[in-house]
Write a structure and sequence with these properties.
seven-stranded mixed beta sheet, 7 strands
C-alpha cells in the first residue's frame, strides 16, 4: 500500500538520489539545493511503500520567495496558484498511480488554503513524453511555452483546482 507523508530533512539523501536519476528531465539538486527548496516549499511530500520512498513532489504557492524564472512566469499570469517545482517517481514506482496520488494530495491541501490553480512545466524539446502524457491525462492545459538558457523548451501548463 502506498503511503503519503510530509518529507523531512532526514529524507534528503533519498530525494537527492531520486532526482539525480532523472536529472535529464528536471534540474540538478544536491543536498544544499534540496535544503533550500525544502525551506521555500509549502509542500514536500513523499510516497512510500514498505518504508521505501518511491517518489516525491516539491511545490510552492504564489508569493513564495523563490527565485525561478518558470515560477515568475506563472506569477505574472496567475493568482492563487500552487507551483509544482518537481515531481519524481522512481523506476520501481512508475505505473502505480503515485504521481496522481501526489498531485491530488497537493491539490487538496492547496485548495484548502485558497489556491485555485496548479501550475507546472514539462519539457517539449527534448520531449519528456511521460510527463507530457501524464499532465494531459490529468487535465492540464498549455498556457504557453518558454525557451530556457539550457536550450530546452518547456510547456507551461495549468490545471484549475
Amino acid at each position: 500500500m502506498i503511503r503519503l507523508r510530509d518529507a523531512t530533512l532526514a529524507d534528503t539523501a533519498t530525494i537527492v538520489a531520486l532526482n539525480r536519476d532523472v536529472v535529464a528531465v528536471t534540474s540538478p539538486m544536491d543536498d544544499a539545493r534540496f535544503h533550500h527548496l525544502f525551506e521555500l516549499s509549502d509542500y514536500c511530500i513523499v510516497a512510500e511503500k514498505d518504508g521505501q520512498v518511491l517518489g516525491f513532489v516539491l511545490a510552492m504557492t504564489a508569493g513564495a520567495a523563490y527565485e525561478n524564472a518558470n515560477f515568475d512566469w506563472f506569477g505574472q499570469r496567475l493568482d492563487k496558484f500552487v507551483y509544482i517545482d518537481r515531481i519524481v517517481i522512481s523506476k520501481d514506482g512508475r505505473g502505480h498511480g503515485i504521481g496522481g496520488k501526489l498531485y491530488a494530495h497537493v491539490a487538496e491541501a492547496a485548495k484548502a488554503t485558497g489556491c485555485t490553480v496548479m501550475a507546472a512545466e514539462m519539457d517539449l524539446e527534448p520531449p519528456n513524453v511521460g510527463s507530457l502524457n501524464f499532465h494531459e491525462k490529468t487535465g492540464f492545459v498549455k498556457l504557453g511555452s518558454r525557451a530556457l538558457d539550457s536550450g530546452k523548451i518547456v510547456s507551461m501548463q495549468a490545471l484549475d483546482l
